[in-house]
Amino acid sequence: MKKKQHSSGLTMLPGQLEPVRVGRRLFLRYAGAFTAGGVILSACGNEENPTTVSSTVDLGKDDVGILNYAYALEQLEAAFYTQVIATPYTGMTDAEKTLLTDIRDHEIIHREFFKAALGASAITALSPNFTGVNFGDRASVLGTAKAFEDLGVSAYNGAGPLLKDVNYLALAGKIVSVEARHAAAIRDLLNPKSADFAGDDVVAPATGLDVAAPPATVLTTAQKFVTTPISGANLPK
C-alpha cells in the first residue's frame, strides 16, 4: 500500500486501521473523522523496528508527542475502570455498574484508537499503580474516578492549542466532550441533584469554560498512578 507522508511527520494511509474487538463500531466512527478528510494516522517510521523500551517513557515531540500524551492518560483510565468492574465496590447498584461499565468501554476504545493510530510511534504499555485506591469502597473508587475524569478534561483542553494539525484537534474535541460527560456523571453519583456536575472548581464562573491544564501539571498528577516514569520534556509548550 502506498504511504503518504504528512507534514507533522506521521504517515498517512489511504487504507484502514484494524480496530480492536471491543467497541469496533465506535472505533470506526473515530477513524471516520480522519477518512472524511483523507487522513488516517498510522506509524511514524519503520514498523519493522519496534519502539525501544527504556526505564523512562519519552512521549516524544510535536503532534506525535501530544497523541502519546493522550494515549498515556487513556491507558490509565482504561486500567482503572477495568479494575473497578472486575472487583465491584460494596453496595454498587445495577445503575452504577451500567454507568461505570459504559465509561470503561469508552476509555478502552480511546486507548486502543490511539495505540493503533500511532502504530510504531506509540509508547509502550504503562504499569498502573492503584495501591492508594480501595476498590471495595465506593467513596474511594468514585473519588478517584472524579479525579481521573477532571484531569482528563483539563489535559485535553490544555493540549488542544499545542496541536498543529486541525484533524487531530477535531478528534481531541470529540474525545474531551466524552470525558466531560464522564466527569459530570461521576460528580452526580457523588453529589446527586446538585450543581457539582459542573462545579465552580472545574467550570470558571466568569467565562463558563472548563479548566485547562498544561501537560507538565497533568503528568505530575498522573505519575502518582503509574510506576513507569513518564517524560514530557520534549512536548510542545
TrEMBL record:
It holds the Pfam family Ferritin_2. InterPro entries: Ferritin-like_SF (IPR009078), Pigment-catalase-like (IPR052965). This is Ferritin-like domain-containing protein.
